[in-house]
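Below is one record:
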Amino acid sequence: MIRNIAVIGISVLAALALLVLLVLFWQGKRKPDTSGQYVALGSSFAAGLGLGAREPGSPFVCMRSTNGYPHQLARLTGLSLVDMSCSGSTTEHILKGGQVFLGPQIDAVGADTRLVTITSGGNDVGYIGDLTLASGGAGALGKLLLSEPKPVAERNFGLVTENMIKIVQAVRARAPKAVIALVSYPNLLPENASCKELGFDAAVADRGRQVAARLHEATKLAAEQSGAIFVDMAGASAGHDICSAAPWVNGAAPGSGAPFHPNQAGAEATAQTVHKAVAELLQTAQ
C-alpha cells in the first residue's frame, strides 16, 4: 500500500514537472510583439523583481512586475511598452536568447520602436548572486546553484562592455531612429559604512563595491563607445543605499520586495531619472 502511494506520488510530481516545462517552453517560443514604441531590455533590476503584480502574459521565469521602472517610464512618456526584461538574464540572453527556452530579448525591437532602455550586466559578473550568497539569503538550494565568488580581477567586465555595444548596434540596425539608453545599477552599498541590513561582513561589502564600480564603468564605457545615452543611476542614487535613511534598494531581509534589488521608491526614481535624460531627445526624434 505504502509503495503504491509512493509510486503514485512520484508519478504526480513527474507529471507536474512535465507540465511546468511545457508551459515554459510554450511561453519561450511565442514570438515577441514588435509594435512597441518603447522596448525594455535587461535583468531583474529592470523587471521589477518583487515589486508587485506579475505583468499579464509574461513568462513566469522572468518574474516581471507591472511596477518595474519600464512600466512607470512608459506611463511618463506615453509610449506603448513591450517589456522584455527578465530576472536572471545576462547580456548574452539579450543578444542571443537561451534563457529557459526564451529567444533574444532584442527580437522585440521593430520599425516602430522609438525608445530602448538596457539595464544588464549584473548577472554576467555575479554581482547580486555574491551578495545573496554571503547574506545567507540563497538558502540550501541557492548554495548549490550559486558558485563561490571569483576574485574581482577574474570577472569579465570587458565582455559586458563588448556585448552592450553589440546590443546598441543591433538596436540601431532594427530601429535607426530609436533613442537608446544604457541605465546603470543604483548604489546598493554605502561608500564606507556598514549596517545590519546588509547581512554580511565588511570584506564582502568591499568586494561588492569593487564589482559595482567596475560594472558601472563597463556600462559607461559601452555608452561612450556606442553613442548611446548613459543614465547614471549610481550617481542619482547617492545617499539612497541600503544603509541610508531613505533607501531606494532592499537589504538582505526586506519586509517586502526582493533582497538586494530596487524597492518601489527606487523603481520610481529610476523611471524619473531616465525620463529626464530622454524626454527632449524623444521630442526631437518625432
Summary: The CA atoms of residues 49 and 82 lie 17 Å apart.
